UniProtKB/TrEMBL annotation:
Record-linked InterPro entries: ABC_transp_permease (IPR001851)
One GO CC term, this protein: plasma membrane
Presence of the UniProt keyword Cell membrane in the record: yes
Transmembrane region(s): 30-52, 59-85, 91-110, 140-157, 222-245, 257-282
Membrane topology designation: Multi-pass membrane protein
Keywords: Cell membrane, Membrane, Transmembrane, Transmembrane helix
Protein name, UniProt field: Nucleoside ABC transporter membrane protein
Compartment annotation: Cell membrane
Amino acid sequence: MIVEAILLTVVTASTPLVLAAIGELVAERAGVLNLGVEGMMVMGAVGAFVAAQTTGSPYIGMLAGMVTGTLFSLLFGFLTLSLVANQVATGLALTILGQGLSAMIGEGFVGKAGIKMPAISFPVLADIPFIGPLLFNQDIFFYLSILIVAGTSWFLFKTRKGLVLRAVGDNHASAHALGINVIGIRYMAVMFGGACAGLAGAQLSLVYTPQWVENMAAGRGWIALALVVFASWRPWGVLLGGYLFGAVTIGQLHAQAFGIAIPSQFLSALPYLVTVIVLVIISQNRRMTLINTPAALGKPFVPDR
């Protein structure tokens, strides 16, 4: 069925957006604005592809993508949390560095056939018409994205540690006065964001397009940043927004395939146009934005000496 085929591609296109955005959401909830998501994603993609090619295992590739993203996020954390560098400028530099470094690392792997991550099929359930292939015959990245969203929601709003993390993002001075290790918590949040971005990049090179192509993140990191705002810093909103933007991305590809008389340049720009429109609409509801935005987002913290 054509509808089923389209929905399957929507799921594949949405998964990296959800993974990258949920990691950034946790970092921002802790008060850290990391604009280097794109750079961490592309580094995760090349790390996963190289590791999978070297070992022959896509699962090792997936782990390598996570580790690469985490290590890259530590560079951001060291510069912004330990050296108190400007978070916006450092994040942009991280993206530029990631794009250049990944191109250099992956130069010898361009054109090589990738190792595709196999699907996990649940017996009986996978045979259910329409629903089975969509929900019970997917790769591990899809199931991890759902579990991470659910786990993040539970952690942030149902646990004491989640409350502490949100307190750090709302008022780091008060949290520090209560004896909370603000820098330590922010380091952990940044590393989680890096691991999720690296996982998203690994999905691109092991599932979405099982090969290495320079700059294969193709702006998805920026869309993930917009998704956090679209979701009003709520995990389940990230899941909803990820699939909405994934549907827009796939919709423009199918529109071209069906020969719809719309300029291809406009269709290619459509996902980013929708991103801008959504952000403008959200900005109109200032009350909702102020309620959910971490008050200390992007503000540096230097503990008392």
